[in-house]
Design brief:
- The protein is α+β, with helices and mostly antiparallel strands.
- The chain folds into three domains: 48 residues; 57 residues, no CATH class; 84 residues, no CATH class.
- Helices cover 21% and strands 15% of the residues.
- It contains four helices and ten strands.
- A three-stranded antiparallel sheet has the order 5-6-7. A three-stranded antiparallel sheet has the order 8-9-10, covered by helices on one side. A two-stranded antiparallel ribbon has the order 1-2.
- The longest helix has 19 residues.
- The radius of gyration is 38 Å and the shape is elongated.
- The C terminus is likely disordered.
Length: 254
């Protein structure tokens, strides 16, 4: 196959087989530099933007690429019919541009089953979907419905108590902490129901466990293998200060 120069359209010397590098598309270095320089100048001419006078405010601005607008960015509005919001990108305002991008992703425009407002969503539900504003309002109503001290039965059977705004804590943990007169060591101590009923939070039905319920053991059964001292339930202290090998019995090391 005969190769022709991209600049002068003359013949190009074919590179011998087995040599390094790729085949040149120009007959000479001079022709290559001349052609590439002309292409760069043409690109700069095509990409140059003219300065125009804004029809709205009278200020000079650079005309955007591939656009015939005669208004500056500050004076432009959304090109969506009936929308007078300020211009943001690609000819649309922020809201309409976001809507167009979501529609391109395959999402659909739906109506909220609560307020009837139209919004873009990818969710599907037999009874209809709820817009983000209604979801937020419903969440705020749920927060305002409960006050500090109210109890809720969780799905796993435990009773949860509101201790703050959107903050809940297990009732059996609070009861056992009140019984011991101190807070439980997080991650090391747990409250266990002796009769197995998760919502029976009577003080006499709760006992302290060291470790998790599935792999731990009762605190009263934990003793040091060296000095035989029991696990201190009422007060967190170093139980074996005279034996360095007894550190495993301390609550912070369990």
């Amino acid at each position: 196959m005969r190769l022709t120069c991209l600049g002068c359209r003359g013949p190009v010397k074919k590179k011998p087989a087995g040599t390094a590098g790729r085949q040149s598309r120009y007959c000479s270095t001079v022709c290559m530099k001349k052609t590439q320089g002309q292409r760069k100048r043409n690109t700069n001419i095509n990409n140059s933007r003219s300065m125009l006078l804004c029809d709205e405010c009278g200020q000079m601005f650079k005309q955007p690429y591939n656009s015939d607008t005669t208004s500056c960015r500050q004076c432009r509005t959304c090109k969506e019919p009936g929308c007078d919001e300020p211009y943001f990108s690609n000819g649309y305002c922020r809201q309409d541009g976001y809507k167009l991008a979501k529609l391109k992703q395959g999402k659909k425009e739906r109506s909220c089953r609560v307020c009837g407002q139209k919004f873009i969503s990818g969710e599907e539900h037999p009874t209809g979907v709820v817009c983000p504003s209604c979801k937020k309002a419903r969440k705020e109503e749920r927060k305002a419905k409960y006050t500090i001290g109210d109890k809720v039965l969780a799905g796993d059977g435990y009773v949860m108590v509101y201790v703050g705004v959107s903050q809940m804590k297990a009732e059996h943990t609070l009861v056992l902490e009140h019984k011991l007169g101190r807070a439980l060591v997080k991650g090391h101590e747990t409250a266990h129901h002796m009769n197995g009923i998760r919502n029976d939070n009577r003080p006499e039905n709760l006992e302290l466990w060291v470790g998790g319920i599935r792999y731990g053991q009762r605190a009263k059964d934990v003793t040091c293998a060296h000095c035989k001292m029991p696990y201190l339930v009422d007060l967190i202290t170093d139980q074996c200060a005279e034996h360095d090998v007894c550190d495993h019995i301390k609550p912070h090391a369990l």
